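=== RUN LOG ===
request id: a7f3
mode: sequence -> structure
chains: 1
length: 170
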Amino acid sequence: MSKSWLPQQAHSDDTIQQFAPTPRKMNDADPGCFGYWSKEEIMSFLKLLLDSERIGITAYAAIGRAADSHLADIAFEAELGQGAICVLLKKELVARGGANILRRNTTIALPSTDCSLRRRIAFASHNQIKLADMLEDAILNIFDSKLNAKLMYLLLLHRKQVEQLETLVT
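=== RESULT ===
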């Protein structure tokens, strides 16, 4: 009895096996194809982050000018940390081919110099919170483990600075 309704299996040597194409150069592929930020978006983010870090430097400098010597020392250490972050970001931009981006001038909006110490601390705290939020967003959207490791370090540093600033206000 023939079972013609069942599909017949072809001989193994007659069957052509085709495999799905594999991404051989996954590192060269644009992560934007998978929902992550494109290289251009990463460059734009790094430039925006650098500009925001520069605001952090001047915010801490403003605190140092209005504070007693102990608080001024704390602000100076934070200011140096912000400066080191700027150097790291500049190197990252240059390594990714963004040296031309660094040459553009940016203006920094700061609170007036005649405001109180409490207001200067609040401005610095707001800037650090904004930076931490930017970093959290970036970490989720960037498909680059080395860059993400650097951004995680910066995120932890900014969260620590926010906590430190909050203790100064109370």
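=== NOTES ===
The chain has a mean pLDDT of 84.
Residues 39-66 form the longest helix (28 residues).
=== END ===
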